[in-house]
Amino acid sequence: MAYRIEVLRDVCIGAATCVADAPNVFEMDDDDKAIVIDPQGDSDEDVYSAAQNCPVNAIILIDEATGEQVWPEG
Ligand code: SF4
Known about the structure:
Largest sheet: 3 strands, antiparallel
Bound molecules: iron/sulfur cluster
């Protein structure tokens, strides 16, 4: 599954858990907010873990094929 990944910058607190889980997808920018550098950089599992482990649910995952939001769950 390919994800469209969005980071809610206003919500992100710079915990960098996402960078630890998926270092080829996420990077911290100069404002200490996560940015997506390559949506396909790590496995779907790692991207999903990163989104799940974000303490403030700042990472939104959309299934590219269906347009359905897969994280956070409904
Ligand atoms: S885990 Fe969440 S709060 Fe932490 S840097 Fe990533 S998006 Fe921001």
